[in-house]
Amino acid sequence: MILLETVDLSKQFGDVHACDHVNFTVNQGEFLSLVGSNGAGKTSLVNLISGHLKPDSGRIMFEGRDVTSAKVYERIRAGIARSFQIVNLFDALSVFDNVALSIFSRERKVAKIAAIADNDRDVRREALDVLSQFGLAGMSGVLAGGLAQGERKLLDVAVAYALRPKLLFLDEPTSGVSTRDKTQIMDTVSSVVRAGAVTAVVIEHDMDVVFRYSDRIVMMHEGKFLADGTPEEIKANRDVASILLGAPLSAGEGQARAARD
Predict the structure, then answer these.
(1) pLDDT at 119 over 70
(2) Is the distance from CB of 151 to CB of 86 less than 8 angstroms?
(3) Which of 4, 9, 185, 200 has CB 3.0 to 4.6 Å from 22, enough for a Cys bridge?
């Protein structure tokens, strides 16, 4: 079942076509990776879908409803949430309060944000549950600004997850962290979103991460889609390999090079 669909979605910055008549579909329940070199249009596409950019033309359909003109908060209420490549947290607040504020916002309890979250038992219970799912419950009282980079990445995803989205966009959740932390982050995120039946779209440059966790991979290049398939199909796609992985040698090419060497 198609959860999200863009129809001829376009956005241009001067002479640069960030998105050039993009037709993109996300199926309910899948873990999809959006890949491509820098400047391919990945983040622009997510910004358009999440409402942080306005398209020049085209439509965005979510659960069969046109949300092209919807405001950011309206898309969040509809079930579209995202995390950011540059972590977007309240560093002067605790880990717990960052998640609690997300829940307050979702429940439209804006008037109560000034109150102590501990006084709202439902919010407290849910915030601690979300933190537990992301392995952050033991840090609930720590200021967000004092977390290590990997922990900040997880908290940023947890804040978005606390909005109870149907579709969650994750913009480079493993950037700037060690290889060990990448595995921990992606194991946690993948486990939580799959257990919660949340559809996820991940922008990611680390192809080892992409191949390990994705159900489907879509590649963008110069504002257009170049490839769409399973990890096995993408690995076998020479256009993708030449741009992202380095063009693989055929058996004959390999033998010829070996002979020359």
Answers:
(1) no
(2) no
(3) 9
Q: Taking residues 159-186, what's their average pLDDT?
A: 93
Averaged pLDDT for residues 225-251:
78
Region for residue 21 given its phi and psi (left: phi exceeds 0; alpha: psi -120 to 50; beta: otherwise): left
Asked if residue 122 has pLDDT above 50, the reply is yes
Structural fold of domain 2-260:
Rossmann fold (3.40.50)
pLDDT at 88 (0 to 100)? 81
Question: Residue ranges of the domains in the chain?
Answer: 2-260
Strand (E) or helix (H) holding 57: strand 57-62
What is residue 248's DSSP assignment?
P
Give the contacts of 226 (CB within 8 A, at least 6 positions apart): 36, 219, 220, 239, 240, 243
- Dist. CA 257–CA 161, nearest whole Å: 50
Taking CB atoms within 8 Å and a gap of at least 24, the contacts of 13-21 are 16/223, 17/41, 17/222, 17/223, 17/224, 18/44, 18/45, 18/223, 19/44, 19/45, 19/48, 19/55, 19/58, 19/223, 20/222, 20/223, 20/224, 21/58, 21/224
Tell me the three state secondary structure of residue 141. coil
Query: Which stretch of 9-18, 137-146, 173-182 has the lowest confidence by average pLDDT?
Result: 173-182
